[in-house]
Amino acid sequence: MEETLVRLARRPGVSVGKDASVLDAIHVMLEHRVGATLVLEDGRAIGMFTERDVMAKVVAAGRDAAKTKIADVMTTPVLTIHAKASISEALDLMLTRHIRHLPVVDADDRVLGTLSMRYLMRDRIDRLQDETRSLENYIGVEGIAGG
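RE: above sequence
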């Protein structure tokens, strides 16, 4: 069976190379309708570039998005999570570190995909809805007193 985190991750993760311009990265993010892009080198995450980085490190700093290299404004080092970790571990890490995007990596630190808080919350909601339906069915069949 496929690892759960990899199943929930966007595959392949949206990425650019370190020599891309900020404007190139923004176009990639818009094209894929995501709020972050990984910066990859040899399949490994060397940086993360988010909407927040656009605002804080480019717009507010008065930089030219077409001339600024992504390597100059990306967030580094990149926090990652191993594919064998649990959904709870990923969610705890993201909440504790206040991040919305988390690359999922294999044993060689190669990126397999990118989790987003949105994907984790959608999965959690789906699980709760399934549990609620199961409980409703149980109560409906057995009755509140157990039949």
